[in-house]
Design a protein that fits this description.
- There is one protein chain.
- By secondary structure, the protein is of the alpha/beta class.
- Helices cover 34% and strands 21% of the residues.
- The protein has 28 helices and 39 strands.
- A hairpin with a 4-residue loop joins strand 37 (928-938) and strand 38.
């Protein structure tokens, strides 16, 4: 910890690691008195032109007075930040608080002058933009609301940094100098700019890891076997297109090659740059390796080595030191304890993993936090992609291991713009930053499907090695919020692969209407039932009988696809043995050719023990070159024992069963040929599934995702209400918090605050005695309700603690006596009297600010049954009008609101407005950390809020509104 020379302690919380535009990293920290030599050295490496732009005159060197000024700060009115790599400055920024006329000032002056200087070698890397975000956040913390900057007109780069930041600006020109003034409060545009820069930088940082021009495997053994030697062989055998090096400090001095790969004792001995280092040495030797890599300019590390946070507290500290050391040199890390990375692109062909064979190239991106699950995913895609359902492979694969640095968020940033990836599949055991993940997922899902399965859902503890923020939200709530963001949530890796194969091969369905056809009546009925169970709208199955020919399938599928009342088709097929049976290859070609006539609708196949058909579907629709008879079969990309992970595999090289391509009725069906095997570019592969429920489940997920895409195109708006008193509410909240750090408001204060947002709560008057109850009823007017509000009876009408429709004093006194006889003295019951509300459906509205996920709005029906079933829907705040509409319709018991069994429908519009007002309250005032409205009685006309509670507290820090940073270690 460095010390401050002035009145404020060193602000360690301003330190941060940032990702720059080119994917490298830098550290941002305050400048202190200890940095004098670094500042002088930094200034000497800046060009005369850059110095001129900074000081408006030739300024070849800094004087002792300058050095003192630029290193002595009070961290309030004078602040300097530096961006460092390897401990050395690459850029600086400072602000000085100014008052009227530009003179130095102290608070309450809220304007400051800001100036930058960036080394010429690092200009164009986005350093100044990152520093502007951080110095602006520091200034806001210190009460500064505006920056002013004077820039020479020729300094176009610096002018662009200010103009592109997205803040509200004023620009003027005087005495040959451009003067820029801008407010520092984040705006929609400044946040959009920040998120766009974040995406480019983090995506580029992953791209540098997955598309390296040169790779060094460090820790390559001298004898066959071992992790390092295996990975070296895997990279070489995959046909890596870049330069490959084997590194081991134990190599003899005269060793020039190992397995045909150049061998060196140290990374320093390699001529030319090294973009990626794969580290396989024991954990205790990794720091030395990282130092060598950093000094050589290596851009990123894949650390296979274990013995870090996966091994206990000592290992966790070792992991933190690893991340700090790597970031010092501007490097990013995948791992430690990682399985590796794969890129199947023909321009790269990188298999820097423990998988001995390269997966098939394809359009699916895979991310797994667990190496074991990564193995299983690669294995299933290998078998399903070539031996069961056609050639669908992997674009990129990342196993993050302990996820110390590069996370699923970073990989999502890369996949978002990766033209080689059409579908993203992720296995997550923890979500380190749910708020950011939700934001990135929503943006990614708008352009390509994102399918997620989450492990450790019910353990309550993150896997060893994962740094995870605490969340108070249950897993079901987090899952609901992910679905709101467009994420396709599945429960198993089998479902993950099933959904991924469909989404990678077929168009999205336009709706839930499904045609079913096939040669088995029973299988068709099973498929029909599965569709109903998944909420789809199936047509009655069409039974083609077991004697159906390939041409019969072709004609039936063509008719189904041409039917405007059909959005998708499920084809069921069972083997039929006998003369004239439709051959697998012929049937596959018939299905493919029929599907090609209507490429806008998805087609799925359910087959029962029909491996030949699946193989033939692969041949009929594959856009990949077909293996010749002399080609050796491709091996599994996994160890031999991995093949037993799922079911009974169908060998990828098994020849399809051949039968006559001419059916009994004489109608010709084209025989698959070399030309047919090479489907036209853009042709859709037909996925096949061994069970109807798996096919239908994948289809239902695609239907829901397609609907989300359509809804996301018009998300609605957050409405404005003329009767909201935002300023008055802020004054109330400030007054309450001045008396305590966290408190639950009393009844009167709750009603006052909610009333500022147009939420009116029915008054409930305390009734500690029967006479008080009569007085309260007189003030409210009969009929009234008498309620016990003791914690064990509150909102539990089923226990008998509520008496309704009391029309006069006699009934009220009788009800009071009954309650006290049943449940005890009034002091225990805490009875209240409340005016009767119109009858309707009892509901509950809640809002809570979670420190990890953000503000969440929840809705459900009141009552123990709903609580028992967990029938509650959730949306992230702020909620739009369309989201409020969908929120009340997304609970399973929603029919009770809309006239179920002849009841009167409730006033849904009034309920939607209530939800929107609660959302606005919490969004406008993050100090409102919890709101509960229970019960909310929704009648056919209007609604009544009968109970409410509000909790206030200082709001949790929102890093999504602050400057870009990497997770702290």
């Amino acid at each position: 910890m460095q010390t401050s020379p002035d009145r404020h302690e060193y602000p360690a919380h301003w330190e941060a690691d940032v990702v720059l535009r080119d994917g490298g990293t830098a550290r941002v920290r305050p400048i202190t008195v200890d940095d004098a030599e670094r500042l002088v050295s930094f200034y000497e490496q800046v060009s005369d032109e850059s110095k001129y732009y900074r000081f408006f005159a030739p300024y070849p060197r800094l004087s002792a007075k300058d050095v003192h000024r630029f290193t002595h700060h009070d961290f309030v009115d004078r602040v300097g930040l530096a961006a460092t790599i390897g401990g050395e400055f690459i850029a600086t920024v400072r602000y000085d608080r100014i008052g009227a006329g530009g003179a130095p000032a102290s608070a309450p002056a809220d304007e400051a002058e800001v100036a930058f200087l960036v080394q010429d070698a690092h200009q164009g890397r986005g350093v100044a933009s990152a520093l502007l975000e951080h110095i602006a956040a520091v200034a806001r913390e210190r009460g500064i609301r505006r920056f002013a900057a004077e820039v020479l007109p020729a300094n176009t780069k610096m002018i662009k940094v200010f103009m592109d930041a997205g803040y509200t600006q004023k620009r003027s020109f005087e005495d040959g100098v451009v003067r820029l003034e801008f407010g520092l409060e984040p705006t929609d545009r400044s946040l959009a700019v920040q998120y766009a820069r974040e995406q480019r930088a983090e995506g580029r940082s992953v791209q540098r890891l997955l598309q390296p021009g040169s790779v060094a495997v460090i820790g390559t053994g001298r004898t066959p076997g071992g992790v390092g030697r295996s990975i070296l062989g895997n990279i070489r055998d995959a046909g890596y297109t870049g330069r490959l090096h084997a590194v081991n400090k134990a190599f003899p001095d005269d060793l020039e090659e190992l397995d045909g790969v150049p061998a060196r004792r140290s990374v320093r001995d390699i001529d030319g740059p090294v973009d990626l280092a794969v580290v396989t040495v024991p954990a205790e030797h990794v720091p030395e390796v990282v130092a060598e890599c950093g000094e050589h300019g290596v851009q990123g590390l894949v650390v296979i080595s274990a013995g870090y946070a996966d091994s206990g507290p000592e290992g966790r500290e070792r992991q933190r030191a690893l991340v700090r050391q790597a970031r010092t040199y501007g490097m990013r890390i995948i791992g430690p304890n990682a399985f590796g990375i794969i890129n199947t692109s023909a321009e790269v062909r990188l298999n820097a993993s423990l998988a001995p064979e390269m997966p098939r190239p394809g359009r699916i991106g895979l991310f797994a936090q667990s190496g074991a699950i990564g193995i299983a995913l690669l294995s299933r895609l290998h078998r399903r992609g070539g031996g069961v359902t056609g050639v669908t492979g992997v674009s990129t694969f990342v196993s993050s291991g302990n996820r110390a640095d590069v996370s699923g968020n970073d990989v999502l940033q890369y996949w978002y713009e990766d033209p080689e990836t059409d579908v993203a599949l992720m296995y997550l055991e923890s979500i380190g930053n749910p708020r950011k993940f939700t934001r990135l997922a929503r943006r990614t899902a708008a352009v390509k499907p994102l399918v997620v399965v989450q492990g450790a859902r019910h353990g309550g503890v993150a896997p060893q090695g994962h740094a995870v923020r605490a969340t108070r939200l249950p897993h079901a709530t987090v899952s609901a919020l992910l679905r709101q963001a467009g994420v396709i949530r599945v429960d198993t890796i089998t479902d993950l692969v099933d959904a991924g194969l469909l989404l990678a091969r077929q168009p999205l369905p336009a709706g839930p209407r499904v045609a079913i056809l096939g040669n088995s009546e029973s299988l068709g009925l099973l498929t029909y039932d599965a569709c109903l169970s998944e909420g789809l709208r199936p047509h009655p199955p069409l039974d083609l009988t077991t004697a159906a020919s390939a041409q019969d399938f072709h004609a039936a599928l063509s008719r189904a696809l041409a039917d405007d009342t059909c959005d998708a088709v499920v084809v069921t097929a069972i083997p039929w043995v006998g003369e004239g049976a439709a051959g697998d290859a012929a049937l596959a070609e018939a299905l493919r050719s029929a599907a090609a006539t209507k490429p806008g609708k998805p087609v799925l196949v359910v087959h029962v023990e029909l491996g030949g058909l699946a193989q033939a579907l692969s041949a009929a629709a594959s856009t990949a070159p077909q293996a010749s008879a002399s080609t050796a079969p491709q091996a599994s990309p996994l160890p031999p024992d991995a093949s037993s992970v799922e079911g009974t595999p169908v060998s990828p090289d098994a020849a399809p069963a051949q039968a006559s391509p001419v059916p009994p009725d004489g109608a010709p069906v084209p025989e698959p040929s070399a030309e047919a095997a090479e489907a036209p570019e853009g042709a859709h592969l037909i996925p096949a599934y061994p069970a109807a429920e798996r096919a239908v489940r994948a289809l239902a997920q695609a239907v829901a995702y397609a609907q989300w895409r359509r809804d996301a195109a018009d998300p609605g708006k957050v409405p404005e209400y003329d009767d909201i008193d935002e300023k008055g509410a802020a004054e109330l909240i400030g007054g309450h918090l001045a008396r305590g750090q966290g408190l639950t408001l009393g009844a009167d204060a709750t009603c006052d605050l909610l009333g500022r947002y147009g939420i009116h709560v029915h008054r409930a008057l305390p009734a500690p005695t029967p006479d008080d109850a009569v007085t309260a009823a007189g003030a409210l007017g009969y009929p009234v309700a008498l309620k016990a509000t003791a914690p064990h009876l509150r909102h539990r009408a089923d226990l008998g603690g509520v008496r309704l429709d009391l029309a006069n004093e006699e009934q009220l006194r009788r009800a009071y006596a009954e309650l006290t006889d049943l449940f005890g003295a009034p002091e225990e019951l805490r009875p209240v009297v409340q005016g009767m509300a119109p009858r309707g459906v009892d509901t509950v509205v809640r809002a809570v600010i979670d420190p990890a996920a953000g503000a969440v709005l929840s809705f459900g029906l009141a009552g123990a049954a709903t609580q028992l079933l967990g029938d509650v829907a959730h949306r992230l705040i702020p909620v739009t009008d369309r989201e409020a509409t969908s929120l009340i319709r997304s609970i399973r018991t929603a029919p009770l609101l809309f006239g179920w069994r002849g009841s009167a429908p409730v006033d849904a519009y009034a309920l939607e407005k209530l939800l929107l007002r609660v959302s606005r309250l919490v969004d406008d005032h993050p100090e409102v950390v919890a709101v509960t409205l229970e019960p909310v009685v929704v009648a056919p006309r209007g609604l009544s809020v009968l109970g409410a509670s509000v909790r206030l507290a200082p709001p949790p820090a929102r890093d999504d509104l602050g400057p870009r940073t990497l997770p702290a270690y």
